[in-house]
Each structure stands twice: as structure tokens, then as C-alpha cells.
Amino acid sequence: MKMKKCPDCGGYTMKEKCPKCGIKAVNPAPPRFSPADHYGKYRRIMKKEAGLI
Ligand SMILES: [Zn+2]
């Protein structure tokens, strides 16, 4: 089962076209993975833990 997203109204549909807008629905973009942010968060946690010791 593949859900597609309407770029206009942002609604999800399983059809090729959005039933509301009648325009072509597209595959929703996968959630962006940002390693920089992840490591930044990790570093902040490390700093916090280091302060507790
Ligand atoms: Zn739509």
C-alpha cells in the first residue's frame, strides 16, 4: 500500500491523483536525516554528562 501526497492540499491519497484537487499526487519525501544535528545533540548530551561527573 503506497500513500501519495498531494503537493497542493497536502492530503494523502492512494490514487494517482488527489481526489480533492484533481492534480497528480507525488511520493512524499522521506524524513531528512541530518547527521550534523544528530552529532550536535550527542555532543550536548556528552557535555551535560561530563558536567555531572
Ligand atoms: Zn489535493
Query: Averaging pLDDT over every residue, what do you get?
Result: 82
Number of E strands: 2
Structural class given helices, strands, pairing?
Answer: mainly alpha
Topology pattern, helix = H, strand = E: EEH
Largest sheet report? 2 strands, antiparallel
List the main descriptive attributes of the protein structure presented here.
53 residues; mainly alpha; two-stranded antiparallel sheet; 1 helix; 2 strands; rod-shaped; binds zinc ion
Describe the overall structure.
- There is one protein chain.
- With 53 residues, the protein is mainly alpha-helical.
- The protein has a domain at 1-27.
- The chain has one helix at 35-52, and strands at 4-5, 12-13.
- The chain has a two-stranded antiparallel sheet with strand order 1-2.
- A hairpin with a 6-residue loop joins strand 1 (4-5) and strand 2.
- The mean pLDDT is 82.
- Zinc ion (ZN) binds next to loops.
Structure, briefly:
Helices cover 34% and strands 8% of the residues. With 53 residues, the protein is mainly α.
